[in-house]
Amino acid sequence: MRKHYDVVIVGGGPVGMLVANELALHDISAVVLEKRHTISEYPKAGTYHARAISTLIRRGIVASPRRTTDHLANTVEPFQFAGYPWLSLRTRTIDGPVMLGIAQADLERAISRHAEGCGAKVLRGHCVTAVSQTETEAFIQSLDDEGNEHSFTADYVIGADGGRSIVRQSGDFDIREYAPTMRAMLGLVSLPHPNQIPNGWSHTPRGWTLLNHNPYGESRLIVFEFDGPVSDRKASVTPEEFSSAVERVVGNPVELVSPHYLNRFSDYSRIARSYRDRRLFLAGDAAHIHYPLGGQGLNTGIIDAVNLGWKISAVLCGAAEEQLLDTYGQERESAGQWLINNTRLQSLMMNPDPIYDTIRHTMAEMLCHQESHDWLADRINGVSAQYSVGLEEYPDLDGTFMPDLEIALNKEITTISRLLGDGKFLIISTEKILKNIPIPKFTNPISLSKELPQDFPEVIVVRPDGYIAWAGRAEEEKTMLSCLHSYFSLTCNNEEKAHD
Question: Model-level pTM?
Answer without folding.
Answer: 0.94
